[in-house]
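Subgroup meeting minutes
Present: P.N., E.W., G.H.
Scribe: E.W.

1. P.N. recapped why we're keeping a running log of single-chain structure predictions: easier to compare across weeks, and new members can see raw inputs and outputs side by side.
2. G.H. added today's entry (135 aa).
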Amino acid sequence: MFGLIRTTQDLLPIMRKQNSGTIVNISSGLGRFGIAASSAYVSSKFAVEGSSESMSYELEPFGIRTILTEPGVIKTSFIQSAVLAKKSQDPKSPYIQLMNGMESGVDKLVENGASPEYVAKVVLDAIMDKKPKIR
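Output recorded in log:
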């Protein structure tokens, strides 16, 4: 979220000066509802959602469009790269059953996820749309 804010702040003077621009923020379906064992990820996506929607109202008068993409699960190594809290993996953790159940469920989701190319096409279509919706 902090990177999104800093990048936007750096680019806005240029976009306001040219009275045009498009900001594309990538969020997640998990930016709309919470799930167990993902509090940090979900809260960061809620922040992207709120910030993007608010910016869209603030920047529209300057000819700047804001697009928020909420892809679902994508076939990448994102999940395999995730770092789980050590305490959550401790066999004595009160959350161990939840964590074990999540692991098998997530693998199935990734297997059936969208390809990165499909998500890129959706984002490009939204950018090219003359009147894109915010989401």
